[in-house]
């Protein structure tokens, strides 16, 4: 279908954009001047340590879907596709911390593959603060320890932040260092994604011939 | 019953077998294409902070002062005069909505449709009520693009006897960028089947009709049983097309024919295995190069 990708970070998540915008049954919701971005998040029942009973429809999935939607509405050029809808479905196969970041990175590749115009890559990473050191890309154990965690989604070329989310208390003096750690990690992810995409484009271009 | 199983293995880059590198300028979203403000921006680019930035991953194309980025995989963008194969999704008041692998559903107006018998008259209210008798949901049609609306939706027409409802055959969906533009898209291949290469990426393979029906206008579906030999030819052609698509070879009648001939020594079901795929495609590419050069 449209775009498919499989991320292999701590949390593995395949994302797919079921081929570019198209008007669905909900004609009433169509926006006249731009595209509607619809994100759905679901995690497989075997993704966490204990088997999950409800893979989708629970509050965490809805909230994650909303966050993904906000992130991608900032990155996708929605003005180019009026009256259409872009669907992004993400499914987490293995969760070991940093699920939001993995979802964003996987979805970026999927959207790119589908040919939807975007401002830039969206690279995300989580960061935390433990024992007065800023840590990047927290694992499940580190997240469960209870320290403050930050999720950052960045557009690397311009340095603009697509989404910054934290739900804990952190002293503002430490904010700089934690943000810096997350930004650096996100840029590293960008280097990786960039390399893979360029290689793929080059391969396809060579095969098609000049 | 014996079954074949394969383990996942890292795919080796296909471009090595072709053996040349591209001279095109390849970009990913966020890349600056140029800082020169004299250029006009086309598809796949946007202007940000005095620079022209790419918004899709693909190759840069420059025509005089226009710069655009052609993405690897896009939906079909209609152009007047293209042949398309589409599936009816809705029957509305005076038109049908057709799915053609594009961003918005295409439209086939009742007035653009041939009436059976080829008569030319004004469409009356009875024709409107009988619409479902002509074309229903999930029917496949071949049509030509008549016009393109401002938002990109495409308007189709079947005003010639060679277009119309499609009968028995096999549909293959590929990316629109792999179908080569040619003078004619209806081909009768010498191997015993016919193929319609829709510009929108829908390819229809069907058994060559015995005699051309002049007066039906494509409405009566031929439901006679298709012989086994014909079915085998059609299956082999379908596998050949899928093969060519995975190796990103442009699709046109010559390439499909060469691929078909190169695949004859293998069994139909073996054609989709990676090693055999590479072998067949390499032979096809070689023959195509010889034919050009």
UniProtKB/TrEMBL annotation, chain A:
UniProt keyword Nucleus present: yes
Stored CDD domains: RNase_PH_RRP41
Positions of the Exoribonuclease phosphorolytic domain: 33-117, 120-184
Cellular component per GO, a single term: cytoplasmic exosome (RNase complex)
The keyword RNA-binding belongs to this UniProt entry's keyword annotation: yes
Domain of life where this protein originates: Eukaryota
Spans through the membrane: none
Location(s), subcellular: Cytoplasm; Nucleus, Nucleolus; Nucleus, Nucleoplasm
Self-association state and partner proteins as the record states: Component of the RNA exosome core complex (Exo-9), composed of EXOSC1, EXOSC2, EXOSC3, EXOSC4, EXOSC5, EXOSC6, EXOSC7, EXOSC8 and EXOSC9; within the complex interacts with EXOSC2, EXOSC7 and EXOSC9. The catalytically inactive RNA exosome core complex (Exo-9) associates with the catalytic subunit EXOSC10/RRP6. Exo-9 may associate with DIS3 to form the nucleolar exosome complex, or DIS3L to form the cytoplasmic exosome complex.
Protein name per Swiss-Prot or TrEMBL: Exosome complex component RRP41
Origin species: Neovison vison
TrEMBL record, chain B:
Record keywords: Cytoplasm, Exosome, Nucleus, Phosphoprotein, RNA-binding, rRNA processing
Keyword Lyase among record annotations: no
Main location: cytoplasm
InterPro entries registered for this protein in UniProt: Exosome_cplx_N_dom (IPR025721), Exosome_RNA_bind1/RRP40/RRP4 (IPR026699), KH_dom_type_1 (IPR004088), KH_dom_type_1_sf (IPR036612), NA-bd_OB-fold (IPR012340), S1_RRP4 (IPR048565)
K Homology domain residues: 169-209
Stored Pfam families: ECR1_N (PF14382), KH_6 (PF15985), S1_RRP4 (PF21266)
GO MF terms held by the record: RNA binding
Protein's cellular compartments: Cytoplasm; Nucleus, Nucleolus
Domain Exosome complex component N-terminal, chain residue ranges per copy: 26-63
Domain RRP4 S1: 75-146
BP-aspect Gene Ontology terms: CUT catabolic process; exonucleolytic trimming to generate mature 3'-end of 5.8S rRNA from tricistronic rRNA transcript (SSU-rRNA, 5.8S rRNA, LSU-rRNA); nuclear polyadenylation-dependent rRNA catabolic process; poly(A)-dependent snoRNA 3'-end processing; positive regulation of cell growth; TRAMP-dependent tRNA surveillance pathway; U4 snRNA 3'-end processing
Gene Ontology terms: cellular component: cytoplasmic exosome (RNase complex); cytosol; nuclear exosome (RNase complex); nucleolus; nucleoplasm
PANTHER family, sorted: EXOSOME COMPLEX COMPONENT RRP4, PNAS-3 RELATED
Annotated family: Belongs to the RRP4 family.
Protein name: Exosome complex component RRP4
């Amino acid at each position: 279908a449209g775009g498919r990708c499989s991320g292999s970070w701590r949390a593995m998540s395949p994302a797919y954009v079921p081929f570019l915008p198209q008007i669905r049954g909900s004609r009433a919701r169509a926006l006249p001047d731009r595209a509607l971005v619809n994100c759905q998040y679901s995690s497989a029942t075997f993704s966490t340590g204990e088997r999950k009973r409800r893979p989708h429809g629970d509050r965490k999935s809805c909230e994650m879907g909303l966050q993904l939607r906000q992130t991608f509405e900032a990155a996708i050029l929605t003005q180019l596709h009026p009256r259409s809808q872009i669907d992004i479905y993400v499914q987490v196969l293995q969760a070991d911390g940093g699920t939001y970041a993995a979802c964003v990175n996987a979805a970026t590749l999927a959207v790119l593959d589908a040919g939807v115009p975007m401002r830039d890559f969206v690279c995300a990473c989580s960061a935390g603060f433990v024992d007065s050191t800023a840590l990047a890309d927290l694992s499940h154990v580190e997240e469960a320890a209870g320290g403050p965690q930050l999720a950052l989604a960045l557009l690397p070329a311009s340095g603009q932040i697509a989404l910054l989310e934290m739900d804990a208390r952190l002293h503002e003096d430490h904010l700089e260092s934690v943000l810096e750690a997350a930004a650096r990690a996100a840029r590293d992810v960008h280097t990786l994604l960039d390399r893979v995409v360029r290689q793929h484009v080059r391969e396809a271009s060579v095969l098609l011939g000049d | 019953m014996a079954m074949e199983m394969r383990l996942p293995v890292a795919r080796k880059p296909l471009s090595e077998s072709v053996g040349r590198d591209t001279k095109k300028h390849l970009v990913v979203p966020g890349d600056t294409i140029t800082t020169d403000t004299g250029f006009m921006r086309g598809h796949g680019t946007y202007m940000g902070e005095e620079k022209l930035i790419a918004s899709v991953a693909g190759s840069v194309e420059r025509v005089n002062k226009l710069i655009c980025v052609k993405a690897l995989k896009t939906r079909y963008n209609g152009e007047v005069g293209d042949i398309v194969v589409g599936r009816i999704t809705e029957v509305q008041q005076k038109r049908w909505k057709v799915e053609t692998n594009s961003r918005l559903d295409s439209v086939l107006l009742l007035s653009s449709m041939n009436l059976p018998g080829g008569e030319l008259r004004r469409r009356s209210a009875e024709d409107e009520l009988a619409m479902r008798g002509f074309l229903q949901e999930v029917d496949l049609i071949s049509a030509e693009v008549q016009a393109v609306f401002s938002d990109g939706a495409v308007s189709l027409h079947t005003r010639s006897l060679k277009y119309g409802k499609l009968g028995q055959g096999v549909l293959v969906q590929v990316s629109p960028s792999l179908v080569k533009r040619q003078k004619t898209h209806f081909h009768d291949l010498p191997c015993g089947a016919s193929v319609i290469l829709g510009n929108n990426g829908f390819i229809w393979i069907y058994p060559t009709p015995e005699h051309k029906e002049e007066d039906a206008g494509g409405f009566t579906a031929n439901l006679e049983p298709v012989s086994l030999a014909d079915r085998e030819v059609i299956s082999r052609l379908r596998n050949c097309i899928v093969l060519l698509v995975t190796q990103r070879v442009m699709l046109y009648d010559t390439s499909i024919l060469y691929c078909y001939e190169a695949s004859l020594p293998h069994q139909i079901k073996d054609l989709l295995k990676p090693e055999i795929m590479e072998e067949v495609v390499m032979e096809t590419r070689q023959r195509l190069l010889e034919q050009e050069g």
